[in-house]
Design a protein that fits this description.
Strand order of the largest sheet: 1-8-3-6
Largest sheet: 4 strands, antiparallel
Shape: globular
Radius of gyration: 19 Å
Number of strands: 11
Number of helices: 8
CATH superfamily of the largest domain: Jelly Rolls
CATH class of the largest domain: Mainly Beta
Distance between the termini: 26 Å
Oligomer: single chain
Helix content: 25-40%
CATH architecture of the largest domain: Sandwich
Order of helices and strands: HHEEEEEEEEHHHEHHEEH
Length: 265
């Protein structure tokens, strides 16, 4: 699937995060059908609606079928810190398994379709299909790896490297879900990207413009095309042209937007 509408087309069940929990184990069709039966709801969230709120009791994990979601935390002084962007085929809510309350807010960035899976039912199925528990650990391990990569991104890379790494990462994630790896929508705002990457919004806009001038990407509103992935990867790895670190890079913005009572994104 290519073009700006790709995020609105539901992914195939074979590309879904929940299906991937059992697919590598080679379990039978009957067990896959059993997994499908525990899905409580298939819901549509409009842009700005919450999948779950910070501090609410944990009851379900969510598999995104189409659209995209951002997760963020609200700090004591009212500032917002974005902790992740999530696309079709990925799972949300697993970081609440330990505390049994959601540790962040999850909000739709656009019209988003999800499958809601009650966690207690998923645990029951894990007892019937033991290999499912191992696959769940794999998914949670991958989430830890993403967090480690983000720490490296914020601690060691300059503005060009951060944004190039971010675009290459999105490309890889879309490819895993059978979407185009070179043409996709940036459903998050420039301000949100800056908040996530620890950059000022102006820096995000400036770096994107320079990438476009250098022929690495092209942009039409929110649609981005990766025109030279090889060179963009070189920038991400510190081997291409890169801007020297500036005061806007190296720590997250101190006042991105918002208090609890304002719209986020």
């Amino acid at each position: 699937m290519n073009g700006p509408d790709q995020l609105h087309a539901p992914i195939l069940c074979s590309d879904c995060g929940i299906y991937q929990l059992c697919l590598p184990t080679g379990i039978g069709q009957a067990d896959i059908e059993l997994l499908d039966k525990i899905v409580k709801n298939r819901r549509i969230f409009k842009r700005g609606e919450y999948l779950y709120r910070l501090g609410h009791p944990f009851h379900s994990v969510y598999a995104l079928r189409s659209g995209s979601v951002k997760t963020y935390v609200l700090m004591d002084d009212g500032r917002v810190q974005i902790t992740g962007f999530h696309i079709a085929g990925e799972l949300l809510g697993l970081n609440a398994v330990n505390t049994r309350v959601y540790s962040c807010e999850a909000r739709a960035l656009e019209t988003t379709s999800v499958c809601e899976i009650p966690f207690d039912r998923l645990e029951e199925l894990g007892q019937q299909v033991p290999s499912l528990q191992y696959q769940m650990l794999r998914v949670m391990s991958q989430e830890i790896a993403y967090n480690q990569e983000l720490m490296l991104l914020l601690g060691k890379k300059n503005a060009d490297e951060r944004l190039a790494t971010y675009l290459i990462g999105l490309s890889s994630r879309f490819a895993k879900r059978s979407y185009s790896s070179t043409e996709f929508n940036l459903s998050m705002s420039r301000s949100d990207i800056g908040n996530y990457l620890g950059m000022a919004e102006e820096t995000v806009c400036r770096v994107l413009a320079r990438f476009e001038q250098e022929g690495l990407i092209s942009m039409q509103r929110r649609l981005v095309r990766l025109k030279d992935i090889e060179k963009l990867t070189a920038v991400a790895q510190g081997g291409g042209k890169a801007e020297s670190p500036s005061p806007a890079v190296g720590k997250r913005p101190q006042s991105p937007v918002s208090s609890r009572n304002k719209q986020v994104g």
